[in-house]
Amino acid sequence: MIHIVFNEPDVAQLKAAIAMDETIHGEVVLIRDDFAVGPLENIYSEDGIAARNHWWQSVLAGGDYENKLSETYDDTETISRVVEAMKTYETETIWIWAAQNKHDVSGYYWLLPFMKEFQGRVSILYLNNLPFINEKGNIFYPVWLSEIPAREFLKAKKLARDITLSEFEVDPDEWTKICAENKGVRILEGGKKLAQHDYDFYDSDLKKFIMPDWQKAQKIIHNFLGKSKHTTGDAYLLWRLKTLLAMDQFDVQGKIGNMKDFELKYHSKSE
Question: Can you give the pLDDT at residue 271?
Fold first, then answer.
């Protein structure tokens, strides 16, 4: 059995659950990219992959996450190894784990074209609006798989179902439309429905946390992540703050790089 997840913290949690139940023993494979943001045009071609990599380099450059530029991963190569294993071992199966968030759902859509030839051997565990019990014994609705205690994963396994032939036909068509629109931000509207927006989608809410007095970029991003309805990774938000500064929309002091090294406020003339 091969388990596929889309968020790094999910790996350790799922492995802990597997250690409790030998019936789901298998390799845990991580898809690392966040397909909820960034360009998707021709995403399965060399040119499309290169364009996406170039975009991520521009997002990560000159800040807290610049060290990640030296990290190399290739999700297509990762899935190629999974496909090869499925072809080699005819009894091998795949479980795709996804919580109800735009990151996991976007990853599911990206993954599906690679899985179609194995219909009947690929299952989905989509934790869509399902209640679980947290460490304090309270019922909650997880947004991320990593929020679920390992013991609760053992109940989640009962949700595994084959991806239907209809899903293998309809969902890739929906993903093709999304890729063709080639916008910068995907938002989950419910179920597996993704809506698309331009790269500046988060800007209006991000601006609400910039005040007349100086604040570190780190605090602005922290407040945004804690209070906004729609959020994304802080690397993306840092990139958007830098973009707003490049457009001369706010005053800035300090070295524009790591989010703790510079501060923002309204333009003096706007106060």
Answer: 43
